[in-house]
């Protein structure tokens, strides 16, 4: 059975084609700059054919899907003979609202429910819907499944997800904390449970998805009981360009400071110009920030004391401190700790961030093995637990696409 996994953003569309008997990736790629000019990078994985990496007009998501199918099936770059070999499509859908606690096959009712969640995720759900409609048009009759970022967090108790604002907004408008990155938290927490012996009962795991978007989850007995993101992915830790949790009054303060800026434009500052980029003034990419921070003057005054490197260091300090603070709060929420998991772009690749988050955790008797941490190879599971640590510290590469493919296979069967 071949499953095409689609992750559609507003101007991008990532895809992977899986052969599910062996869970093998046949091809993967990304359409970029959809609606602007268009670029496709397509990588055949299973047969050694060349990579296609070129500008190509992509006016809409429909054209993007058609180009992807053409590349998947063509003689030069293809991995299957025809689109008949695509048996099902699995879609990442960011916001499933209160309705979806698990993945579902897409039908008219499901489409309407995803549409109804648009006010809760105006940046994401419309793009996900465009991806679904484009696939329905390009490969009609092929079953499609929606896998929701929010679904794994449906087990969070009411006292952790209801905002202390007038209750009517929750009751009438579904305004509550939902959490995101659920497929990733689910995948890596299940891997950690396997490693801890396979029995979810009694496990208390904190999964740290540190990528461009950042969220932590407290996973007790295999179920999410709290997470850092809220009604939107803006809440929680500072991220590449997002501020994370701040005093809400900042919205009116920044608006006033900018001469009466509209709410939309002020929110844009908090979503796109804040976080690591906002503090460092350099980049939203942790590699750039770490590189700038590494030149920062040490306590003895040696090194670069320019504001650029000092601010890069400050951005990292804020990030690691906030991550550690949330970890501490989740130890309390779960009444203990079995393991901390680092995953996603930063969590998997930045030994600096892992080390500096764990530096704060002496108070809860957790430590990391610095040698293992600094030499951890890319892309593999590594136990980084330091000697005497009361909980495991694990590096677990995430694989959200595989989760989507597995759910799709399970549902379509
Ligand atoms: P997304 O949330 O878009 O899926 P990823 O999980 O791919 O993002 O993470 C992207 C982030 O990972 C970027 O900020 C990037 O800088 C960071 N990253 C990737 N490699 C490294 C590295 N070697 N060191 C530090 N950060 C890294």
Domain count: the total is 2
Decide which structural class fits the backbone: alpha/beta
Q: How large is the radius of gyration?
A: 22 Å
Q: What is the global morphology?
A: globular
Beta-strand proportion = 15-25%
Strand order of the largest sheet: 5-4-3-2-1-6-8-7
CATH topology of the largest domain: Nucleotidyltransferase, domain 5
Distinct ligands: adenosine-5'-diphosphate
Task: Describe, in plain words, how this protein is organized in 3D.
With 413 residues, this protein is an alpha/beta fold. It has two domains: 2-152, ATPase, nucleotide binding domain (Nucleotidyltransferase, domain 5, 2-Layer Sandwich), CATH 3.30.420.40; 198-395, ATPase, nucleotide binding domain (Nucleotidyltransferase, domain 5). 37% of the residues lie in helices and 18% in strands. It has 15 helices and 14 strands. An eight-stranded mixed beta sheet has the order 5-4-3-2-1-6-8-7, sandwiched between helices. It has a six-stranded mixed beta sheet with strand order 11-10-9-12-14-13, with helices on both faces. The radius of gyration is 22 Å and the shape is globular. The relative contact order is 0.11. The model has no long low-confidence stretch (mean pLDDT 96). The structure holds adenosine-5'-diphosphate. Residues 211-213, 240, 285-287, 290, 344-346, 349-350 line the site of adenosine-5'-diphosphate.
